[in-house]
Amino acid sequence: MHDALVEVLGVPPDDHFQVLTDHDGTTSTLRYGDYLGVRRDEGIVYVAITLRAGRTPDRKRALYRRIAELAEEYAGTEPRNVFVTLTENASIDWSLGNGEAQYAP
Questions:
Q1: Beta bridge partners of 48
Q2: Could you state, in chain order, the average pLDDT of each consecutive group of 10 residues for the chain (105 residues)?
């Protein structure tokens, strides 16, 4: 996923603010099924990205495609099982440390 963010959205290569969480169905609940003509199964991978607003719909579509391609290439995950959501916010909504708003001084 990081490679797709760097390639498609121009995220800095050293921006590794990522949290990976395993949902194994034993210690957590894993939900999947058919919706909007996409048949997902137990191989589903959920990708939730929070980012600053401003990317065009075409850039977002390109990001979804690239994440699915790389998930298949790196982990063998079928593209139909890659479920991506984006949540956008403003530059002032970020503090990367020291109690400062680095993106909106």
A1: 85
A2: 87 82 68 85 90 96 97 96 95 95 90
Looking up tokens 């034993």, which residue turns up? 26
Provide the terminal-to-terminal Cα distance of the chain, rounded to the nearest Å: 29
pTM higher than the cut 0.90: no
- d(CA 37, CA 67) in angstroms, rounded, equals 20
**Whole-number Cα distances in Å, 54 to 14, 18, 36:** 21, 20, 27
Three-class SS string for the chain? CHHHHHHHHCCCCCCCCCCCCCCCCCCCCCCCCEECCEECCCCCEEEEEEEECCCCHHHHHHHHHHHHHHHHHHHCCCHHHEEEEEEEECHHHCCCCCCCCCCCC
Q: What are the distances in angstroms from CA 20 to CA 36, 48, 49?
A: 26, 10, 11
